[in-house]
Design brief:
Structural class: alpha/beta
Shape: globular
Bound molecules: D-xylitol-5-phosphate, zinc ion
Distance between the termini: 7 Å
Number of domains: 1
CATH architecture: Alpha-Beta Barrel
CATH superfamily: Aldolase class I
Largest sheet: 8 strands, parallel
Length: 217
């Protein structure tokens, strides 16, 4: 059995029925629920805040993987921690004092993650790699579901997995954006730990079968 963690994103679900979407994710066999928080400033779209996450919490047994695509992520840590997030991931491009935010996430007993957009090099993360539990490599420009994967960003994720293994760090590597039946082969070759899928998951008629297909089972 594959160790790949599948993290369907509710971004592509019907927002009037997010509880049902979270339950659908559980029923599919996926382990994580990916929650895309967008503020209309760091990215053009606005999605939802901590109340939606708190309201969703009883609808799923999955790990809540909160992906903050916001400015000033430091102001949101406590609210999402109290809402029931397990991982809180923010963008290195959105802040100056990333180390302090990582510490703050830990102080609430949550797992800190860092994310980079396709144009940000791995070197931007270097100093923080020993301190985080997750690195989320965006394989599209954040803001929308249903975009085509950027191959150079997937290559970057592959290099990060190699670098992590060489240096003996233990964070998970996640990729986010453009995962579907056509790209999953290349994604598996990158040997990442977590795969986020939004539009392809919610577009799949048989979600259990789609999760298995992502895992290569
Ligand atoms: C994009 C979000 C993604 C999004 C992925 O900015 O961070 O999590 O849901 O959507 P797909 O899988 O459709 O590319
Ligand atoms: Zn995301």
């Amino acid at each position: 059995m594959s160790n790949l963690i599948i993290a369907p994103s509710v971004l592509s679900a019907d927002f009037s029925a997010l509880g049902a979407a979270a339950a659908e994710i559980d029923a599919s066999g996926a382990e994580w629920v990916h929650l895309d928080v967008m503020d209309g400033a760091f990215v053009p779209v606005i999605t939802f805040g901590p109340k939606a996450v708190a309201d969703l919490r009883p609808h799923s047994r999955g790990v809540f993987d909160v992906h903050l695509m916001t400015e000033r992520p430091e102001n949101l840590v406590q609210a999402f921690a109290e809402a029931g997030a397990d991982y809180i991931t923010f963008h290195i491009e959105s802040c100056v004092h990333a180390h302090r935010i990582v510490q703050s996430i830990r102080s609430f007993g949550k797992k800190p993650g860092l994310s980079i957009v396709p144009s940000t090099p791995l070197s931007a993360l270097e100093e923080l790699l020993p301190d985080v539990d997750l690195v989320l490599v965006m394989t599209v420009n954040p803001g929308f579901g249903g975009q085509a994967m950027i191959p150079s960003a997937l290559e970057k994720a592959k290099r990060l997995v190699e670098l992590r293994d060489e240096r003996g760090f233990d964070f998970l590597v996640s990729i986010d954006g453009g995962v579907n039946a056509a790209t999953i082969g290349a994604v598996r070759e990158a040997k990442v730990d977590v795969i986020v899928a939004g539009s392809a998951f919610f577009g799949a008629k048989d979600k259990k079968a789609f999760v298995k297909e992502l895992r290569g089972e």
